[in-house]
Structure formats: structure tokens, C-alpha cells
Specification:
With 177 residues, the protein is α+β, with helices and mostly antiparallel strands. The chain has one domain: Muramoyl-pentapeptide Carboxypeptidase, domain 2 (2-Layer Sandwich). It has five helices and seven strands. The strands form two sheets. It has a four-stranded antiparallel β-sheet. Strands 1-2-3 form a three-stranded antiparallel β-sheet, with no helix packed on it. Helix 1 crosses helix 4. The chain is globular and about 40 Å long.
């Protein structure tokens, strides 16, 4: 959707005290796609509370802090540059390829030509009859909130087509709350 005027400057370090990698100064742990599929299955099966919503909200809160902090640190002010940086961060973090197809303060569309989580789910259990990428729903909600200077829970994100359900690409609809 947008071309970024700012070159993303993600630095990686290792903190020996916490045994964590740091991505642009933030602690970051990316698990294999099998592990991501396992904790997603746990969220799917959770009967005590809405595990899918919880997983999406935890992702939203976490990535909101990371993305909004990155935008401040690097003085990224334009919405198009913020969205492009968010696309790049998703890729660099190993989550797949995310493309913002359209974006406005009230509505947007996002597509995943490839998805780390969907690939893991399919390898572990095969196709599924409904979307399972709650982590990416939270990421997209955080990206839109940070890009448009809003707070978490400002956007509702719905996965309308899913790689795990047999679609060639996953698609997400973003609507302001």
C-alpha cells in the first residue's frame, strides 16, 4: 500500500542477564511455528474464558508498545511510513508477510501472502474449518492503533479468509470501534 520514506533500523542484541534477544531494544522471543500452533490450539480449546480474544489482546498490547515506541524513537510521523514499518517489522520478526491493502482511521484491509502460524498449524494438524490467526489479529489492531495515534482496543479485526482454511492468502478486515 505505502512506500516507506524511512528505512527501518531494527537492531538486535542479546541480554545475557535475562537470556533474551532484544529487537530494537525490546525483549523478543519468537518460537517455532509448531510452538505458535500449540499455544493457538490452547487458546482455541480454552473453555474457562475466551482464549482466542485473550491471545489477540495480549498480542495487541505487546505489539502496540513495540510499534508506538519504534515510531517515537525514529520520529516516524506519517501514517504511510508507520504502516510500512509495521509491515517490515512483521516480516523481520519471522511472522510472515503482511500487506496493508487499504487503511484509514475508520477502516482497513490487510492481507497475508504467507503466515508463520498458519504454516505451523497445517503441518501439525492439517487444514482447519475456521481462521486461527489470533496473534495476527492482535498485531494488526496494534498497528492501526499506533499508526493512527489511537489506543489499544480502538479497532476490531476480523479474519475473513484464512490460509489454514484453504484460502491462498489470509485477509483481515479492520473496523474502528
Amino acid at each position: 500500500m505505502a512506500t516507506m520514506n524511512h528505512h527501518i533500523e531494527i537492531t538486535t542484541d542479546f541480554d545475557p542477564r535475562s537470556c533474551r534477544h532484544l529487537v530494537d531494544g525490546e525483549p523478543y522471543v519468537m518460537h517455532c511455528h509448531h510452538y505458535a500452533a500449540l499455544y493457538t490450539q490452547l487458546a482455541e480449546d480454552c473453555g474457562m474464558l475466551d482464549g482466542k480474544k485473550l491471545l489477540a489482546e495480549v498480542a495487541e498490547d505487546t505489539f502496540y508498545k513495540v510499534l508506538s515506541g519504534y515510531f517515537r524513537k525514529h520520529d516516524i510521523g506519517s501514517v504511510s511510513d508507520r504502516l510500512a514499518a509495521g509491515e517490515e517489522y512483521y516480516r523481520i520478526a519471522g511472522m510472515g508477510i503482511l500487506k496493508v491493502l487499504s487503511a484509514g482511521p475508520d477502516y482497513g484491509e490487510v492481507e497475508l501472502p504467507s503466515s508463520h502460524l498458519d504454516q505451523g498449524w497445517i503441518k501439525k494438524w492439517g487444514k482447519h474449518n475456521r481462521p486461527v490467526n489470533h496473534l495476527t489479529r492482535g498485531y494488526i489492531a496494534s498497528l492501526f492503533a499506533a499508526a493512527f495515534d489511537r489506543f489499544p482496543r480502538s479497532y476490531n479485526v476480523t479474519e475473513t479468509a484464512s490460509i489454514v482454511s484453504g484460502a491462498p492468502r489470509s485477509r483481515f478486515e479492520v473496523v474502528a470501534e
